[in-house]
Amino acid sequence: QVQLVESGGGLVQAGGSLRLSCAASGRLLWRYDMGWFRQAPGKEREFVAAISWSGDRTDYGESVKGRFTISRDNVKNTVYLQMNSLKPEDTAAYYCAASRTTRATRIIEYDNWGQGTQVTVSS
Length: 123
Description:
Oligomer: single chain
Shape: globular
Strand content: over 45%
């Protein structure tokens, strides 16, 4: 098991940027592919981004391609999500998750989840 704690959420104006962090403890992060998901009120949780254990491969949801960047620092046991050009529709709770499945983009493929951090984008 790995414990995940997200931070960095907050209120930002449209067009602004935020950087989310996900700190892991319990097991070495490098053993896991990592992902970010988000869930807006009344909507299903959706895939945002994923990164391989080595950091050499990334995947993004269509709605965030070109605006968000996922990265990781296995020495610091931390995963990041840099979010630029934020839009009001990016407003959601953002969750970090760990998976032992390669190229995992589905919720079912992740078995360790953080508690989430709220991102609110005002228009």
